[in-house]
Hints:
The protein is an alpha/beta fold. It has 3 domains: 3-49, Transferase, Pyrimidine Nucleoside Phosphorylase, Chain C (Transferase, Pyrimidine Nucleoside Phosphorylase, Chain A, domain 3, Up-down Bundle); 79-336, Pyrimidine Nucleoside Phosphorylase, Chain A, domain 2 (3-Layer(aba) Sandwich), CATH 3.40.1030.10; 344-433, Pyrimidine nucleoside phosphorylase-like, C-terminal domain (Aldehyde Oxidoreductase, domain 3, Alpha-Beta Complex). The chain is built from 16 helices and 13 strands. Helix 10 links the parallel strand 4 (195-202) and strand 5. Its cofactor is K(+). Its EC number is 2.4.2.2. It catalyses: 2'-deoxyuridine + phosphate = 2-deoxy-alpha-D-ribose 1-phosphate + uracil; thymidine + phosphate = 2-deoxy-alpha-D-ribose 1-phosphate + thymine; uridine + phosphate = alpha-D-ribose 1-phosphate + uracil. Catalyzes phosphorolysis of the pyrimidine nucleosides uridine, thymidine and 2'-deoxyuridine with the formation of the corresponding pyrimidine base and ribose-1-phosphate.
Amino acid sequence: MRMYDLIVKKRDGGELTREEIDYIIEGYTDGDIPDYQMSAWLMAVFYKGMNARETADMTMAMVRSGDMLDLSAINGIKADKHSTGGVGDKVTLVLAPMVAAAGVPVAKMSGRGLGHTGGTIDKLESIPGFNTSLTEDTFVKQVNSIKIALTGQTGNLTPADKKIYALRDATGIVDSIPLIASSIMSKKIAAGAQVIVLDVTCGSGAFMHNIEDARKLARLMVDIGDNVGRRTIAVITDMDEPLGNTVGNAMEVIEAVETLKGRGSRDVLDVCLELGAWMIAGIEADMADTGKAADRQMLEQLHDKAYERLETTIKDGSALDKFREWITAQNGNSAVIDDYSLFPSSKYIYDVKADRTGYIRYTRADEAGMASMVLGGGRAKKDDAVNPAVGVEICAKTGDYVHQGDVIARIHSDDEKMTAESEKRLKNAFVIEDNEVERNMLIKEIVF
């Protein structure tokens, strides 16, 4: 078998066998296949695509390239949630303690942010003392003890995906549906959860800019999960505007705490309730039918009951208590929940004002994310440092009516020179129109 022949085969639209895909993934991971040949093959995939079977085979080849996390020592069926990325996405910070407070174990591995999409690890590390590097033994014991733990990804989890993603990023082939699907699902499968819920974001701030591509990606990932025995449900959510009212690490944690206190952003809470309810429904469906596929009606009934359970965790304060317990367990200072001054704060706050009267419409949510990134709130390169104190507040959302001179955003900055660039990015993110603007539909579709 030669890599040259497999490049030509895919270039000409051929379908690769499982053995051929295994050869490519193993050879590249081991260093036997050079970057230039792998780049050529990935570019052929970018243009010619892969079918569902090829994508599933590539996913499992990447899973087998490294370690698989064994969660069997954790009591009960484990569920995991993954977002395809967005702007202001602090969902895990709210969803995880809600689900854990409902009695469901949350054993989660998360990553750092790159570009305008924020990383959960970066956000949690803005809490003084919070430790995101747990040993596997500590991770398992903590979940069994308090139902929740979160750690950074291990060094040898899906090493093939790490190498391939870096190559895709460097050669302009990140936006390929089969390559995105195999990358996400290889990490989720290797992380050991039996139930996987996917938040497939759709819009100007997401990888998938339109509903058709979001639907294709969701369907492909659900099929991959189901084919390897992991119940998988995808929720397509809106990302045409930032989620919630903040973009920036410490600011997003504060907004998450406010949401857990029952007074935060409604859109953040609605997404968390939806995803969390499907996590619980998936677990209960597995328990009820011993692993066989539950029909849609059964899942929807379980979802509705779980949704009510999760709403109760906000009303009775148990989700907030669980977040406090979680912070303490991972050596963080849980006093931040009651005293936001303990978070890092920026040197300067600058008001961005509307230059005319009318209705707000977000057209470039990614620019709102970039407005935070240029301040130091995100990474242009993966080894860049992140400033947890900086970011932007979103004071007006799609459909809001504003007058000229109203504050529509606030920039939290440590560098006055970058404030002008951030303001420019923010103003590129939206337009102000004369006619009334419809608000976006937050939950677009559910894919089983």
